[in-house]
Amino acid sequence: MTPREKFIMALEGKQPPGLVPHFELVFYLTMEAFGKVHPLHRVFQQWQQMTEHERELQRNDVAETYVMTARHYNHSAIFYHGPDYKTDKPELENAKAFEKIRELSGMDYFTMMHGDATYAIPNGSEMMEFVENIADKPQEMKDHAKRTVEDTLEAALGMKKYGTLDGFALCCDYCFNNGPFLSPKMFDEFVTPYLAELIAGYREMGYYVIKHTDGNIMPILDSLVSANPHALHSIDPQGKVDIAEVKKRVGDKVCLIGNVNCGLLDTGTDQQVIESAQYALEHGMPGGGYIFSTSNCVYSGMNLERYELMHKFWQEHGHYA
Fold it and tell me: Which residues contact 158 (CB under 8 A, 6 or more apart)?
C-alpha cells in the first residue's frame, strides 16, 4: 500500500498494515535537514516580472522540498503551505503546486491545504472588537460566519477540477492550554454550526477533513466531534489532553492525530521524548484510527535531533502486529 492509502485508511477509522501512518502539520526544519528554505518562509517580491521559465524553476524547487521531506521522514501526507508569490491569483498557484507535487511523487502522498473558515482565537489587536461584536452584534457575527463558509466552499469547488487535492486541514485555533477562548455554550452558538456546515460541504465534494486546534479541547470535544471531521489534531498534552481518555471517549467516531509533546521535544530530556512518543503510540494505535505526529508541528528553533529521535522510536515501535 502507498503511504496515501494507509493515511486514508486511518482517517476512515481503520487499521492499516505495518507502520502506523505519520506526518507533521508543518516541518519547518528544511534548512537544517536539506539546506532548503521552507516554502512558507519564501517571499517572491518580483514574481510578476519573472519569466515563466523562472517561475517554473521556483515552483519545482518548492514541490521538491515538500516531496523530499515526505520521503526522508516517511510522512504519509503533504500539507502544502504556499510561499508568498505576491500574485493576485493564489488559487492558480496552489493548483500548479499540487500538480508539481503529483508529477514528482505520483499518488504516493495524501495532499492537503489550509481550509478553515471559522472564528479562531482573535489576535491581540482584534480581541476587544471581536468580544464586543459577539456581545452587541451576535446576528451580524453569525451572518459573517455563514458567508465566510460559503465563500470558502466555493473556492474549494474551484480546486476540485484539478483533481490533485485530497483534503483540507482546518487550522483555526480555539483553545488555550487552560480551555477554549469561547465558553462551550458560546462555541456552540458561534462556531459549531459553521464548522459543521464547512465540513459537510467539503465531504460532499469528496474531500477529507482534519480539524486542528491546540490547547485544552476537552470542554468542547463533543462539539468538535459532532461537526463530523475525519480527524482531530493535535490532542495536545501541554493543554492537559490525555490521548487515552480521548481515544476512549471518541476514538470510534474520529481519527486522532498527534499527542507527542512539543514542549518536551524542545526542552525535555531524550528519555522524556521517548516516553511521550511511547504513550501516544500505546494509546492511539489500538483499533486503528490513529496517525502519529507531534502535538503541534516541527517548528523553527526545534532541535532536529529531537525530532529524529521521536521519528526513530516510531519506526522501531509503531508497527501493528
Answer: 91
**Residues 69, 304 contacting (CB under 8 angstroms):** no
> In this structure, what C-alpha cell is assigned to residue 12?
476512515
pLDDT 10s digits, 210-221: 999 999 999 999
Task: Give mean pLDDT, residues 151-175.
Answer: 95
What is the per-residue pLDDT for 255?
Answer: 99
| 3-class DSSP state of 169 | strand
Structural domain total, the chain: 1
Give the three cell numbers for residue 281.
Answer: 503510540
What is the Cα–Cα distance from 62 to 68, expressed in whole angstroms? 10
Q: What is the CATH number of the domain that holds 32?
A: 3.20.20.210
- Give the integer Cα–Cα distance in Å for 274 and 269: 9
Could you give the 3-state DSSP secondary structure of residue 290?
strand
Domain interval for residue 270: 3-317
Nearest to 96 by CA among 46, 51, 62: 62
- Rounded alpha-carbon distances, angstroms, from residue 30 to 1, 101, 273, 280, 301: 27, 16, 21, 25, 12
As a whole number, mean pLDDT of residues 269-292 equals 98
